Amino acid sequence: MPRKIDAVDFFYLSMPEIQDIGDGSQDALLVRVVAGDLVGWGECEASPLVTIASLITPMSHSACKPVAASVLGQVIDSPADIERIHHQVRHNSMDLLQADHALSGIDVALWDLLGKIRQEPTYRLLGFPQARPKVPYHSVLFGDTAQETLFQAQEARRQGFRAVKFGWGPFGHAGLQEDIDQVVAAREGLGQEGILCVDAGTVWTTDVDEASKRIKVLEECNVTWLEEPFHTGGLHAYLELSKRLRVKLAGGEGAHNEFMAQHMIDYAGIGYVQVDTGRVGGITSAKRVFDHAAAQGVQFVNHTFTSHLALAASIQPYAGAADHPLCEYPGQLSALAWDLTHEHILRDDNGEITLPDAPGLGITPNLDAVRKYLVDTTIEVGGRVLYRTPSV
Amino acid sequence: MPRKIDAVDFFYLSMPEIQDIGDGSQDALLVRVVAGDLVGWGECEASPLVTIASLITPMSHSACKPVAASVLGQVIDSPADIERIHHQVRHNSMDLLQADHALSGIDVALWDLLGKIRQEPTYRLLGFPQARPKVPYHSVLFGDTAQETLFQAQEARRQGFRAVKFGWGPFGHAGLQEDIDQVVAAREGLGQEGILCVDAGTVWTTDVDEASKRIKVLEECNVTWLEEPFHTGGLHAYLELSKRLRVKLAGGEGAHNEFMAQHMIDYAGIGYVQVDTGRVGGITSAKRVFDHAAAQGVQFVNHTFTSHLALAASIQPYAGAADHPLCEYPGQLSALAWDLTHEHILRDDNGEITLPDAPGLGITPNLDAVRKYLVDTTIEVGGRVLYRTPSV
């Protein structure tokens, strides 16, 4: 018998102190979808408070409805049901910008739920007979100094990582020579064989000439990709830099729907597309991006910098694709993000990771940790309480 | 002496009842920016509650900060200061999706404030020596039946409007024949001379063949533009339809930054670009879109369906451009949206409208109306009240 969605609950989790650094794992928005006696879990990679508001806000007009209105009471029994709910949220909340981030976590939770209903891993419901091992790249922030980055790269190598990505921190902010020193240090620490990627965190907005000053060091250090030199919308800038640089460009984490990621594939000359299932519209949208990337000869790589629940969700859309072997593996998780799940996706003897062969995402939240990091939140509008932190 | 921004206040206004129709004027988010003894006003075309949350949310990480953090305490004395604040919001709140909608109203209020500091109309600060008259098109929802649409078109003609746009309502939902009847009725009511535009409200998502079934009636009824047949991101679909259809395409209201609107100009084959200053990033972003449109031979038209404060803001970015003469003029404002401002922009004897020659936007909110429609809102996180409706 098809199940009905009885509840959609958002939980705002946070470390006690949030630092002003690029570490997105310092807080989390956990999503629980309940259908009868089954529960699906997901995570939005988004501002928790703002995304909660988008779930429960009063309607503004027919195309600006609260996200919950398009999900509660819906029937779920097949992938087509998720597609339908997904489309309804997008349509009914078209003018509610934050809705895409809310939808993302809900969509992930729906795929987890459907996997539990069908007793299948999510990736199988997406059409992959099995999950292939992925080569995880250790994803960390640049050190405050090149020396620190050198140590981090050496440590990653010692831990057996075959690939490392450095990003954010002082890169692009401290000056050209500092950037050069950082990349050289990363390569030195990693050794000549390791895969080295660099993430500029959109620092040059659309300034191709400023980005181009790093061409020499990126090429000489044999960097595999330069990620996000520009704003996600700077398609012309991407394309222009892609013509000047032998290193491939990567981007897409800023995409909050499949269209934006497809534009990067179609117009920006990127070699790698990296969407975050917790932002792009969940597994449904990420799978569409994967399909388009594969058809266009662009590599798909997950973007993930948070918990292993989010990590598991982010790999589902390309789990079975042997020719898309790389995988972002967050290397500096906050205690919250690590504690959040019972299970963790760990490297095997080959240094590779594989999704669990279990119903849904195969990763479940640790409710003790949820309670520990839970932030009490109340939203009251016109004398009515529209949101109060649900009980776990 | 340069002024410092002392306060940024958001006010959630609403009609007592919100109907499930495409009328975006049923609620409003009013923005007040205070610098010493001067005040600037703006409006976000956005979900009020969610946008309030984006103003005051706790920081998630360095690129996901509350919008207020990049505005409060900033110096404002020149257009370059607004550009700087604008850039900071975008940079510091890159991962906060709703921030673009919040920024939009703040940016409008900053341009109003700067006009008051400099004692100049905003359009003059944007480089236009004077505001040109615009031909307002009466913008209304399709009637529930073709008969109702006929009456509305006749009424618009009787009121002396030279241009009318019908949109949303049953169009695209009721069936092909119903759509044909609607367009025929609109043309019949308006007469052969009037400018007739049709707004499909993204109803066909990316389905070019479904949209194409309306080609014959759109061409036979001499429609000036077909607006938003597809999702803002459906660039391929737009381009394909633009090749099949002699009627020009219009779109852009879904753009929440200048990049998205520029992509429509560059890749989608549209003839008219219509951004909403209350969504795209305010007057700063809308002016960039205008500059790009003008350079590419695409007509710029404001998108506005709310108050005359928003209307005044939406015309500033192309106020002085004589060769971009059309202007959306909301024709079915809610009592709230009409009451919200002391002044209204009315048609002159030529049936045209012109921006007021007064400092800033030249339109001021009626604070009695603000108090009347104000919705008390409280947001509490971790035991701290982060937002409570400010006093007017």
Radius of gyration of chain A: 21 Å
Q: How much helix, percentage-wise, in residues of chain A?
A: 25-40%
Number of helices of chain A: 14
Query: Please, what is the average pLDDT of chain A?
Result: 97
Query: Which chains make the largest contact?
Result: A-B, 67 and 66 residues
Structural class of chain A: alpha/beta
The second-level CATH architecture of the largest domain in chain A is Alpha-Beta Barrel
- Low-pLDDT regions of chain A: none
Number of domains of chain A: 2
Strand content of chain A: 15-25%
Q: Give the total of beta strands of chain A.
A: 15
| Form type of chain A | globular
Notable characteristics:
alpha/beta, three-stranded antiparallel beta sheet, homodimer, TIM Barrel, 392 residues, Enolase-like, domain 1
Could you explain the architecture of this structure?
The first copy, chain A, is α/β, with parallel strands linked by helices and about 400 residues long. Chain A has two domains: about 5-120 and about 365-390, Enolase-like, domain 1, CATH 3.30.390; about 125-340, Enolase-like C-terminal domain (TIM Barrel, Alpha-Beta Barrel), CATH 3.20.20. In chain A, about 35% of the residues lie in helices and about 20% in strands. The first copy, chain A, contains 14 helices and 15 strands. In chain A, the strands form four sheets. In chain A, strands 12-11-10-9-8-7-6-13 form an eight-stranded parallel sheet, covered by helices on one side. The first copy, chain A, has a three-stranded antiparallel sheet with strand order 2-3-4, sandwiched between helices. In chain A, strands 1-5 form a two-stranded antiparallel sheet. The longest helix of chain A has 20 residues, at about 100-120. The two termini of chain A are about 25 Å apart. The mean pLDDT of chain A is about 95. The interface between A and B is large, with 67 and 66 residues. Strand 14 of chain A pairs antiparallel with strand 14 (about 375-380) of chain B.
